[in-house]
Structure formats: structure tokens, C-alpha cells
Amino acid sequence: MIRVLLADDEDLIREALAALLGLEADLTVVAQAGDGRAALAAARAHRPDVAVVDLEMPPPAGIELVAEFGRALPGCAVVILTGHGRPGHLRQALTAGARGFLAKGAPGGALADVIRRVHAGIRYVDPALAADALTLPPCPLTPRELELLRLAEYGTPVPVIARRTHLAAGTVRNHLAASVQKLGAADRAEAVRIAREAGWL
After folding, report:
1. Edge-to-edge strand order for the sheet containing 77-82?
2. DSSP-derived secondary structure letter, 179
């Protein structure tokens, strides 16, 4: 019997997945969680073989949660489930230690099959996402530009970013302007969105 933990902040989806997996003779859902912290606590309490976690939910979410599981329960294989998978997220998830990456739009029986595969030590990636990841262009931004764009994500003022990074305000502005230009964005907010969707942030 493969012991499964489900973590998704959407109750309806989580409960539907639990009901679907409950029909499988060799799978049992031992715990459910609505956010990353609850998922980690449930994992420590129930020691699942496989954790199925939503990419985007209250923190720690998705990719960060994969790394936490790797430290807390290295024997637990993690499958990322996402409604809007982007190639950059796939790369980040696999780098963090995810064993599977599946779109929520996959056929009904796909999740059970993926759980069996990752439990057997086989990595699984949604074929469409894998194809997209292979054609993803490399990130045009430097590590410093990425760092500053990440700090600017929530509208943080340039003087605050400058203090945090020990850079001159003009240097911060120049790097942010270069990021906007390289990404073909209209402004910082759009540059952040482009970089986030590509999985570079």
C-alpha cells in the first residue's frame, strides 16, 4: 500500500483527488493539508511515501516545499501538481528534488500512475511541459539583475532596495532599467511578471 499525502489550498480539488485516489486498491491517502506548513506537519506525523503538492498555495508552497520535504523526509517522493505549469517552474522543481510534475488538466487516472512511478523511483514529467522546457530560452538577465528584480517585485522603492543591497540608488535604477529592456517589458511590474512566468524568479 502506497501512503499518500495531498496538499492543495483548494478544498474541492484536494477532496476530489482524495476520493479519486481512494478508488485505487494500492493507494491510501493518509493525510490532507491546505497549506505548506500543515503539509510539513502532516508529513512528519504520517510519514507518507509520496506527497502530492500544489505548486501555488500558502507558504511554503510548491518548489520551496519540495526542498523542505527533502530535508525533513528524504524518503518521501514529491509530485508537483499545477494548474498553470510553466517550463521554468518545471526546471526549478526538478532541481529542488521533485520526482514528478503533472498538470491538473491531465487525465483522471494519470495521478495514480504518476504516484506509482515516483514511488518506484522513476521520475515523471508531463510531456507537454517537458517539450516546452526544452525550447525555453536561457535567462537573459545577470544574477544581479535577477536579484534586484526580485526585490522590486512588490513595488519596493529604489532607495530601500539600494540600502538592502549596499548599492547606489542610481546603480539599482540602471540594473532595473536593463532588466525591463532585456525582457521587452513596458515597466518593472511587467518585467517581474515575464521573469516569474518563465521561472527565472
Report:
1. 27-33, 2-7, 50-54, 77-82, 100-103, 124-125
2. H
Contacts of 8 (CB under 8 A, 6+ apart): 14, 17, 34, 52, 53, 54, 57, 81
CB 169 within 8 A of CB 162: yes
Residue 59, all three cell numbers:
507558504
The helix/strand/coil state of 35 is coil
- Please give the average pLDDT of every successive group of 10 residues along the chain, which has 201 residues: 96 94 96 95 96 90 88 94 75 88 86 97 87 76 93 91 94 95 94 85 80
Give the bridge partners for 161, in sequence order: none
Q: CA dihedral in degrees (40, 44, 50, 55; nearest 10)?
A: 0
CA distances from 116 to 23, 43, 123 (A): 14, 18, 10
